[in-house]
Please model this.
Amino acid sequence: MDTILPHTYWRVGLCSFLLLAIIVTIIFYVHISAIIFVPWFFAIICILRLYRATPLELRRIEVKRMSLFVAKLAEGMSGHRTIVGCDRQDDFQAKLYNIIDELNSIHFTSFSTHAWMTTWTAVFSTVLTWLVGIFITQLRYDLVPSVGLLLLTTCPTLSSISQELLDQTMQLQQGMNAVERLNYYRTSIPEEGPRRIKNSTHKSWPQHGGIEIQDAYMRYRSGLPLSLQGLNLSINPGEKVGIVGRTGAGKSSLLSILLRTVNLELGSIRIDGIDTAHISLHNLRRRLAVIPQDPTLFLGTLRYNLDPNADPTDNANDARLENALRAMTLFHDGPGTSRNLILDSPVESEGTNFSHGDRQLGALARALVRNSRIIIIDEATSSVDPRTDTRIQRTISTEFKDKTVLAIAHRIKTVVHYDKVVVMERGRIVEFGKPRELWAREGKHSQKSMFRGLCDAANITEDSFCHRPGHDAK
Model:
């Protein structure tokens, strides 16, 4: 954009100067030609007004369709195994070909409108040249032959210069349309809070990891219903708290307000007594460790994924990274195993050379390296097998035993051994307490608790509360 717009400005200015110079020269020697330049000028303006709206709209439509094409192509590249496995190749190809046909129709329409502009500009410029030639012929005895020849050879260039001027004007308008969109994104879209606030927190915050949520109300966008309604929750430092509930209960919304990806409409969240609304996003998100449902690994090495700022020559830091990997049971000592061999192990883009369970353990190792006081786990075991689930739960209970852990659970069995469980329904906390107490709780008319209903649906019995993860599985 920085190079296209100045270049286009220069081309528009040059074409305008040349066009004006030719018109002034012709009128200076053939005064009567002024009467035909006025309608010619208005004809060119009419062509521009009729032509300019179409390319702009076609460009907008093309950008939208091109984004769909790129998205569909990316879907095919990343999900080709699923498409083939479900025998949906024909459907996918049909949708992709439809988008390509739409793009081709847009390009054909754009070519047709440009041809229409070129044709009519050439027609009017040819008529103008023909009339000027007639006037020069009538004044052949009053004009110097060299001047007449100059005018006759210059007139045909009006057509090419006019077309170039119209093309450059349209490119300039399209470029300014992009500037308009950028300005809209810069000024009209709500932004997050400031990334950095000077002296917003102490370097050691949070020291304990206590969380206090008071009367929290949140909605994702103005006009939408509330996703969280009057949430009140107190979590002591070092507690392991599971968050359960059916789909749409508000579990992920709770994660959003903790990280301030969505701001509260009412209420407050305090961590170690400090309101997170007064903390910069950089400090808040750097001090909390998040284990997502789909962990992300970057192209590079294990050392880079655990600590992007790690110095390969720092043996003390390498030892810390290696201990984190061993704590996650990702690697074991063996003949010829060295620290560099482990930490310099290659990681492909998105960690495709690791299983999903190993990627989750890698994310846990990253959180262990950061030594955050608060660990947030977003359904980290929903897509792994029971054996890997057991490994992850054992790691959480041993390596994060002195950390505050909030786990959004898809499998109820993974949180039955936690200190407390939060049961959510329609953006509210309906039950909160120790898992076994909630399991045994009964309401009016001997009605079971909601947590008991979730446990029964998952075939969880009373014996499940007696075993810690990893202690009963070999």
The CA atoms of residues 240 and 419 lie 5 Å apart. Confidence is low (pLDDT under 50) at residues 335-339.
